[in-house]
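Action item from last meeting closed. Structure (548 res):
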């Protein structure tokens, strides 16, 4: 226990790899071939892939390092590609056969054997700009300050004319309150604004005030909300806490909120009125409602204005306060250019640069064939062709992702349709399938994620791996193993179906906050959480599901 700061994961046959935000790698599980022995000093890593007994790391300078057993023997930290080699993506099959996609548009084997040329250059330009009230002139430099931004990524390869624009937000950091202030005593009928807050200490400069200064508390002892407002309001959130207030005198004119309600989480795009307020009580009968029920809040956890409306509104005033609400980011990434956000989108003084992830451009089947998306939107296929898995359909263009199965191949087009070739005995995609934004393969079944957050599955269904659970929605990522299927939902939870032959259905109770999944064919399932920690389950005969 204690592994944290993880940004990517890869599950091998009997071992697991984790990439940390500092560019280092952690490995665990079966180590019979050295596949869990990370080479000393390995750093600057940006991507990982794993076979049954092999591990590979791609560094930011294009270096590729292998450890464990490859198809040609033990690697023991061998440098497969030198710095400056231009490797931008790689893929390994179960036997450790590695294919390298280079920036010059070539594909090579680990030994340097050329597999394809003319794939394309996959070079991109980045333009960041402010939006929605954030001032930031268009620039190739990533922004640092909290705010709302637009990023436009454009291919500079003349044979691959495409671009993608996304909106993102760098969230404000939240100060730490180390010492709460104390309130002076009020006389009956005085508003909170008459009290003095003294002695408060926070981690950044700012001021403490009552959240509702016009509120007149009831006589006696009450608990009131205060707000700490940072001086640097651009990059830091206001923070609310509560303090005890003493009031001497007769009856107060406002009701007392005895306990706060709880706000049910919603998904980005929904209005506040979609969140149910449950519980909560006041000193008089009434109802809790959002002050601005039609507001569409941004993703993240923020405090929203809630109003208590007394049933006897003539005798009692309404009371407004702030309540925390979680808004999940349920947007499925558009096609064309998959983007990896910075490790943190909370202000910390560092630029928040995105990078292009090219993992969906390459895929290896478990038994000897390999697919790559060329920059002109066509597909290159290499290796074993015993079932026609290399026979790319004539005229296939506009491809943005590929997935290799045991004996078949699949491509996702920019128009949201799916094309398959190779072994047909495992089934074909449903007629009319469209609106697809991601694809995944088990060995002998296939999965497709649609833009509406639903999942479609087809192929061999001997263990129920194609029986998508009824009502499954809000899915943002999919993964398949031999006879099992997995879906990551926008709320950070995981759903699984299919065989449970080695515990792959035994998702840890309460698992949430997941942002990425990796499912090995015969090994563990690894989940990366938003806090940088990793959770594993499934096959664990060599400790591959026991996270360090």
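Sequence:
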């Amino acid at each position: 226990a204690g592994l944290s700061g993880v940004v990517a994961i890869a599950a091998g046959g009997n071992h697991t790899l984790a990439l940390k935000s500092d560019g280092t790698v952690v490995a665990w599980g079966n180590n019979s071939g050295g596949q869990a022995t990370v080479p000393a000093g390995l750093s600057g890593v940006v991507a990982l892939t794993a076979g049954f007994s092999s591990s590979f790391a791609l560094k930011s300078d294009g270096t590729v390092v292998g450890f464990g057993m490859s198809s040609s023997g033990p690697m023991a930290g061998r440098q497969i590609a030198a710095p400056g080699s231009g490797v931008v993506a790689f893929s390994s099959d179960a036997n450790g056969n590695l294919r390298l996609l280079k920036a010059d548009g070539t594909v090579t084997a680990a030994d340097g054997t050329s597999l394809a040329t003319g794939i394309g250059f996959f070079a991109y330009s980045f333009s960041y700009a402010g939006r929605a009230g954030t001032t930031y002139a268009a620039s190739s430099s990533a922004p640092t300050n909290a705010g709302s931004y637009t990023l436009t990524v454009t291919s500079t390869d003349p044979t691959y004319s495409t671009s993608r624009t996304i909106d993102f937000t760098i969230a404000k950091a939240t100060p730490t309150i180390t010492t709460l202030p104390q309130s002076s005593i009020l006389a009956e009928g005085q508003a909170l604004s008459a009290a003095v807050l003294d002695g408060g200490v926070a981690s950044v400069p700012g001021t403490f005030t009552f959240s509702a200064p016009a509120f007149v508390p009831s006589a006696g002892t009450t608990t009131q909300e205060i707000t700490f407002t940072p001086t640097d309001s651009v990059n830091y959130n206001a923070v609310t806490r509560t303090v005890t207030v003493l009031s001497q005198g007769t009856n107060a004119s406002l009701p007392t909120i005895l306990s706060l309600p709880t706000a049910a989480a919603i998904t980005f795009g929904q209005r506040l009125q979609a969140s149910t307020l449950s519980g909560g009580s006041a000193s008089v009968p009434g109802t809790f409602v959002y002050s601005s029920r039609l507001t569409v809040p941004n993703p993240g956890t923020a405090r929203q204005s809630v109003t208590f409306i007394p049933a006897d509104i003539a005798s009692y005033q309404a009371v407004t306060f702030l309540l925390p609400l979680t808004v999940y980011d349920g947007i499925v990434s558009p096609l064309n250019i998959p983007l990896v956000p910075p490790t943190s989108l909370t202000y910390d003084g560092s630029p928040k640069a995105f990078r292009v992830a090219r993992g969906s451009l390459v895929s290896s089947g478990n038994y000897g064939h390999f697919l790559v998306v060329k920059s002109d939107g066509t597909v290159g296929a290499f290796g074993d062709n015993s079932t026609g898995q290399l026979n790319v359909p004539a005229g296939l263009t506009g491809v943005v992702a590929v997935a290799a199965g045991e004996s078949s191949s699949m491509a996702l087009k920019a128009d949201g349709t799916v094309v398959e070739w190779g072994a047909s005995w495992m089934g074909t995609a449903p007629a009319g399938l469209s609106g697809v934004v991601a694809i995944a393969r088990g060995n002998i079944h296939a999965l497709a994620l649609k833009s509406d957050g639903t999942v479609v599955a087809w192929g061999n269904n001997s263990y129920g791996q194609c029986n998508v659970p009824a009502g499954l929605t809000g899915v943002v990522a999919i993964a398949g193993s031999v006879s099992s299927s997995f879906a990551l939902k926008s709320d950070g939870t995981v759903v699984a179906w299919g065989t449970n032959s080695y515990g792959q259905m035994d998702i840890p109770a309460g698992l949430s906050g997941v942002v990425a999944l990796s499912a090995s064919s015969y090994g563990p399932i690894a989940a990366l959480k938003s806090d940088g920690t990793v959770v594993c389950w499934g096959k664990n005969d060599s400790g591959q599901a026991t996270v360090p």
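Note appended to the action item: The mean pLDDT is 86.
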